[in-house]
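Aim 2 progress. For Gfo/Idh/MocA family oxidoreductase, the working sequence is reproduced below.
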Amino acid sequence: MEKRKLQWGILGYAGIAKRSVIPGIQGSEWNEVAAVASRSLDKAKAAAESHGIAKAYGSYEELLADDSIDAVYIPLPNHLHKEWTIRAAEAGKHILCEKPIALNASEAEEMKDACEKAGVQLLEAFMYRCHPRYDMIRNVIQSGEIGQLRGIRGAFTFNNAKDMSNVRYRKDWGGGSIYDVGCYPINAARLLLGKEPEAVTVQAIFSAEHDDVDMMASGLLEFEGGVSLTFDCGMWAAFRNPLEVLGTDGIIEVPSAFITGQPGSANFFVQANGARREVEVPHVNAYTEQADQMYRAVTGEAKLPYGADDAILNMKVIDACLRSARERARVQL
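Predicted structure tokens for this construct:
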């Protein structure tokens, strides 16, 4: 395509779109939010006015019919990801779909097939891995500074349990902490280790007052060579999102592993050889970087670092975690 800004449409004015993704795309040199759609035209018009977006649509179908839109962002509840990804692909739109990409690996495979058939890009919106610091963390690991890897520990928790109308507490909509935040340490471990787990074991708190979704979960992912990820995630616990990479000779500590808002918040620490140093990370907007990855893929400048195959593999792990938690059993992949 010609050298011009990628024109984006937003399918649904969810909180993550309002707070982070729309401003992130608007901060890009090569991306532009051209339209927003909601099931309520009034809501779409209010969103467009708030963000300075040119077009507002009262249905997702109308936005997909707009030939001037190149790509769409889908922040809809999890159970709608497959339907609207496939419909967007059939309309010829490239797709950034919020995590987790689907309700299960089978759905993710259907989404991949539809996008390949339509010749469009599909990217799962794990914005944290678009930030340059994860390349920096991998470089420290590969340098041997912390020795041989022995394990990874990660967590992502917050407390929103009183919001009883929240979509996260609808079981049939893909609610629960593993889907919502547990997917982050799972994804990060796969990214840093560059391989897939062999087995998972998860224990969870299922809450009857929250439609029996997992409100808190603790898990173990077993990788080859005896290396493991231990993680916990929750929507009924104090906020935190750290990651720790343990080696034979040192430790990498990431205090805010998945959220990078303020300058300095992406910095991490390396403890090795009797000293502890802070690694300063460039302050960039991960959501802008995410949009730029899509731009480069659409224009042919570079392939997506993480494509649909990675999303399918991540869903296979999530599927196994949910099964383990329900059955209270170790599940082999």
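DSSP finds nine helices and 16 strands in the chain. This observation will guide construct design in the next reporting period.
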